[in-house]
Design a protein that fits this description.
This protein is an alpha+beta fold and 102 residues long. The chain has one domain: Conserved hypothetical protein from pyrococcus furiosus pfu- 392566-001, ParB domain, CATH 3.90.1530.10. A four-stranded mixed β-sheet has the order 1-4-2-3. It is globular. This is ParB-like N-terminal domain-containing protein. One of its GO terms (cellular component) is chromosome.
Length: 102
């Protein structure tokens, strides 16, 4: 791990503590695919979403579609990788872009 690399805490987070309206890092214009919804329904979340703390709530860095589907399925908690410190909007965007590179 490099000196400036973020560190994370892994834990389950209540869906209602995640700000679903914050779209800073949501770049998908399409609805989540049915296959993703079916997969989450059958086996749950395989890859934790990435969140950053904002006061007593969380901002989504990566995993908007997984959180949205989990909310629609009335899931109470979701596995998450939480940054252990608050990051600037620019740093959050860079982390999202790095994680979602193809």
């Amino acid at each position: 791990m490099t000196e400036n690399a973020p560190t994370y805490i892994f834990k389950s987070v209540a869906i209602d503590s995640i700000d679903l309206d914050d779209q800073l890092t949501s770049f998908s214009l399409d609805a989540p695919p049915d296959a993703l919804q079916q997969s989450i329904k059958e086996v749950g979340i395989i890859h934790p979403v990435t969140l950053t703390p904002i006061g007593d709530r969380f901002r989504i860095i990566c995993g908007h579609r997984r959180v949205k589907i989990s909310s629609l399925l009335k899931t109470k908690e979701i596995p998450a990788r939480i940054l252990d410190s608050v990051m600037s909007d620019e740093s959050v965007l860079m982390l999202n872009l790095s994680e979602n590179q193809v």
